[in-house]
Design brief:
heterodimer; A: about 100 residues; mainly beta; Immunoglobulin-like; 3-stranded antiparallel sheet; 7 strands; B: about 160 residues; 6-stranded mixed sheet
Chain lengths: ~100, ~160
């Protein structure tokens, strides 16, 4: 299965800019489906970015994050070719991890 | 012959249908984090009111600051996807959080900014209706905020 995480990490001198797009329904638990039944909440709760053994960015998310979430941030201290490990866990115990090379 | 109600016999298999949890073993995810600070703030995400959520997350109130720059659209045509970002010139930033005042749950996202990470984040939020979006930046132990009203023409909670 293809990874749910798409990431672009670009080094620009000392600063690495990271853009991430994750495929996830991010159901709030408040929306009804076509049959009028509530779709149970299903959303990513935590998203972690790790580089060189250190967390560089941690996101705690609620249901108000849009479907197929996007997040962008930048950090210092990494170089081209370093590994950036991204992982998420959701409220149903689901998870995914990917390791990307900083370009 | 008088018609008599036919009592349908039903075989009730009580207990026989005990749920077999086959192959549903939840794998333990992510090693336990050391600092209590690193835990997912479940309680804060459940609160409805913005002030309560801020209190639950940080335990104090924020003061408005022009050093927090909140970038959000004036009008969002689709409340399901509202691009919102924040940047700040403050030093020693440790976290950035987003609140949408009149969403069913005010706290939308909270980001931890470790040392070495640029204090800024862009993401997309859902908004139920026209309301204020507040970004709170925690810097050097204090809270600073910026608020902007976003007009929503189609809410993000109707599917």
């Amino acid at each position: 299965m293809a990874s749910s995480i798409r990431v672009r990490a670009i080094s620009n001198g000392d600063i690495t800019e990271v853009q991430t797009l994750i495929q996830h329904p991010m159901d709030t638990g408040l929306v009804k489906d076509a049959k009028g039944e509530l779709i149970p909440a299903h959303f990513i709760q935590q998203l972690t970015f790790e580089c060189n053994g250190k967390d560089v960015f941690v996101a705690d998310w609620g249901t108000a994050i849009s479907k197929d979430p996007y997040v962008k941030f930048s950090f210092k201290g990494a170089r081209k070719g370093d590994d950036l490990k991204i992982s998420w866990t959701d409220n149903k115990g689901g998870s995914d991890t990917i390791t990307a090379k900083i370009a | 012959m008088t018609p008599r109600p036919l009592a349908t016999r039903r075989l009730i298999l009580r207990g026989a249908a005990s749920v077999a949890l086959l192959g549903l073993g939840n794998l333990p995810i992510a090693p336990a984090r050391a600092a209590a600070n690193d835990k997912y703030p479940e309680q804060a995400f459940k609160l409805k009111n913005e002030a309560d959520a801020i209190k639950a997350l940080y335990g104090r109130t924020a003061e408005p600051s022009d050093k927090v720059k909140l970038d959000a659209p004036e009008i969002a045509e689709n409340g399901g996807v509202v691009p919102i970002s924040v940047t700040t010139t403050l030093d020693k930033v440790t976290s950035i959080s987003f609140f949408v005042a009149e969403n069913p749950n005010a706290l939308a996202a909270s980001y931890r900014i470790p040392d070495g990470t640029i204090p800024g984040v862009a993401n997309r939020l859902k908004m139920a209706k026209t309301t204020n979006v507040t970004a709170i930046v925690e810097a050097d132990g204090k809270l600073y905020s910026a608020t902007k009203e976003v007009k929503v023409t189609v809410g993000g909670c109707g599917g």
